Structure formats: structure tokens, C-alpha cells
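Model it.
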Amino acid sequence: MKTRTVYRCTNCGYEAAKWAGVCQQCGTWNSMEEVEVGISKKQSANKRQSVSPVRLSEIDVDSSQRIVTSIDEFNRVLGGGIVKDSVTILSARPGAGKSTLLLQISSDIAKNGYKVLYASGEESESQIRNRSLRILKDISDNIWILSDMSMNNVLKSIEKVDPDLIIIDSIQTFVLEEFDSRAGSPTQTIECANALVDVAKNKNRPRAVIMVGHMTKADEMAGLRTLEHLVDTVIYLEGESDEQLRTLISTKNRFGRTGEIGLFSMEEEGLFPIEDPSEYFTTKRDAGQLVPGAALSVMKEGSRQLIIEIESLVSQSYTPYPSRIGECLRKDQLNTLISILEQRGGVNLYDKNVVIKVTGGLRLREHSANLAVIMSIASSVFKKGIPGDVAFIADVGLTGELKRVPSIDTRIKELDRMGFNRVIIPKDSLKQKLDLNNIEIIEFRYLTEVLDFMFS
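Modeled.
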């Protein structure tokens, strides 16, 4: 066997042809060490079938038929279900529940007659069995478990079991014998993924593949970006280990909408879809009860509109540098909104601590809720509650002007459907008159006008 010299990072396993003082993958200094690796020819990968081009108009769309599960939130994120010849990668922080979710998906489609091969390079068969006894009511005979780090054995098991869905947990733990590098190295990860793509895209026997990918401390998928380009769908399961809410979001999807989210609640028996998100992210209060520091808005997540409640707590600071804490948004964004409220709204916060939170733990991913954030802070400062039938939909510029947001008509219709009486939006935001039942649309041009209207 021939050998070649490469320089490998002792921290992350990144390989480079030349030595460098800093690793290009993880940024660690003086971690590149010279190693000798073997070079062997891949026998299986070179034996590709000869294919011929076909007309686009003659391609049978049934070849991409989906496997629809009974977990609606999961189907939503993938665009309607699992495409039979697709490769999906799922990433999350340790303990977020990705293995639990995949086991629930395996059980769901196995009950419908599909075969599932669950290959794990991290857990033993008994560990997977114990989890299944905790979260599954019935264990189907159509689920096969393989606890092995050899991708060669996985490929052999695929031929033996003939599964419809293959789950790999996780791709960074598997190795191909043809390559002389450790598990988790860029070479092994990409080549193992390539082998699974070949299996999934077989025209004679298409199969769906879901791979688990490790996540780094920077909340990014570990390894080369090539892995994300290689697969059809990239989904992330987000959520803190001490909170119930889990958000499944797609950042790449060749078969559906990118940015679609699924909402789950983590319970002792597994992940359960949240059927009424708007009720989950708002607080039920008695009629006429006004609580200072709370404001409502509508956030667009994928194809759905979510009514969210933003809570603020403003307190006196006894230190030279007041605290600015935002669990739901970036600190820079929070500081910007506070500066706008101070300079354009005339509300002094230089000696006040400000804490922002969204009920349910959802993160603010767009600017449509900026006005609601500012109004919640002002409500806390003035110690005056905002009526629960009022919502705010607007961005706020540095000039104090209210800015239009996308899809404002669909947001207003969702508020009308939920029984809201008033919504405050930027002036001239609507291009046409909406057919509404109850809600009154109030338009303002400046932040000061909204503050006077609510707190004068």
C-alpha cells in the first residue's frame, strides 16, 4: 500500500497537504502534526452503473414519492414527508432529543409496513432498547438495530435487511475500511456520506437516509461544509436541555420550503408536537387584566404565523453598567432597540436594567416584533399594562419611524382569526383592503405616536 504525508490537526482531525501554524478548521495554533496515511483504491465506489441522460419531461415524478408519518410537525419541516430517495442530515446539541425523535419516526413508519435500519456508532443495542421501552408503546418487528462503527458492515446490512429508511447515528462515528484515517476525520465523514448517497439514489431501489451530524460549541455542524452540500435536506433541532420547547428547522431543503419549522414539547415519554402554537406562546389572563411589561406580536416561521408574547422587566441599576439581557434575541439587537426608545421615544433607561423574554422560549428570528419589544419595555417602565386584545406588527428604524414588514396581510388575518380587536401597523403598509371580521387596523408613522396612543 502506498503512503502519503499529510498534516493533521490534533484537535479536530482536519487534514491539509501543507503545514500551517493554525488549523484552518478549528483555529487552534500549533496543532498540525505530520502523519503518514495509506492510499488504497476504492473498489465499490468505482463500480458505478452506466447511466444515460433522459428528457426532463419524461421523468416519472412518482419516483420521489414521500413516506408520510403521523408526526405532522416533522412532515411540515421536510415539505410533506420523507422523500424515498433522499438524504437528510439532522444536527443538534447533545441532549436536545435527536435520537429520541429518530426512534419515534422509526416506530411510526415501521407500523405502516416500512422497514427501518437504525445504525448507531455511539450506543449499544441495549441502550437503544431501554430508550424504546421508555418512549414507545409498541415496538414493531420492522425495526432493525445495528451497533457498529464500520460503514462496510452497514452497507452489508442494508443488502441483507433491504430497509426503506436508514438512520445513521451519527455519521462522524463511522469509518470505511478503504481509508486509513480515524473516525470523524473529514475524509472518513465525506466518504461515508458518499456511500450512503449512492445507496439512497439507486434508481432500482431508492431508499431514504437520515444521518445525525455532530454540532460544535459554536452551534454549527461539525466537519466540512461539503457535507451540507452533499445531502438534500439539512435540519436542526434547537432547544435548551432545561426547557420543554424544541424547534425543528430546515436550513436546506430540495423538496420543500427552506426555513420551515416544527414545534415540539420535550416530555418524559419523548417529543410531542405542539398542536396550537399561538396558545403555547401566550399567557391566558382574565378579561380586563393588564400586566405591565407584556406585548403581543405575530412572527412568521416558514408557512405559519405564530402569535407570540414578549415580556420585559425593567429595574433600577445600582452599578455603573446596567444589565441588558435578552434570552430571545441578540444583545446587539436589544441594545439598538433600547437606544431607539431612549433617543426617539424620550424614555430614559441609562440607569435601568432591562431583561427581555418570549413566553415559551422561542427566539425572535425576524424584525416584525421589534415594535412589540419596545412597547413591552415602555409598558414596564411606565408600569401600565397593554390590553391583551392589542398586537403590534412593525419594525422600528433608527429614525423612530415604523417600517413595513413582509406578509403583513397574512399576519393580520391570523390575529383576526384568533379574536384580536386591534392591531398597530406602519402607515401605508397595506396595498389593498382586507376582508376582516373583528379586528381594527390602526396605522401610525412614528414610534412617539404609538407611545402616546398607548400610555398618554
